[in-house]
Amino acid sequence: MGHIQHKTLAYTEQHVIHFKEYADADARTGAEELTEDDDYKVALQTDDHSLWILTDYSGPTWVPIGIPSGTIMLFGQNSAPTGWTRKADWQDNAMLCYASAGAIGSGGTVNPQSVHTHGNTFSVDNYTLLIADMPAHTHPETILHGNEAADGAAEMANSDTGTTGSTGGSGGHAHGLSGSVSNNTAPHYQEVIAATKD
Q1: For 25, which DSSP code?
Q2: Which among 7, 28, 50, 151 is least buried, having the fewest CB atoms inside 10 angstroms?
Q3: Boundaries of domain holding 135
Q4: Is residue 47 part of a domain?
């Protein structure tokens, strides 16, 4: 059945049974001593401590065990675990779940840990009403009729009452508005680090 090794890997502190050890990927993929009995056994690649399953000895064809190299994950600790490299370019960034298809991106300029202010003052501009802005309306009026006496003196005869003609357009008007609301925001947060699998 081949030689089975039982070894403690320091980087995981777990016991892993594997039947072969290879110094690097070239040695593993170029292995010629494999047989059909070795299919679906585990080998250790010592240069990066990766584990591989042999799925076809004639190739040979190997399938990695565990997390593929280049995978990015978040960790709730100060430094990246062994076998991972911290992503410094993601420091002090908020995370946004990207549900659409396509490439992921980044943006923004404000550190999410900082308190930031939204602040302005509001004021309403003055506006002088025009006739066209007023509702249609009339005004009452009184008309006095006078007669001249024989001696040339004026004398009051009578008066009539009525209303003026309607005016006004019932139009609307606008007031300019400027300013803002002042508000400081400092949301709760939990720090994590992002790291890439070596």
Answers
A1: H
A2: 151
A3: 131-163
A4: yes
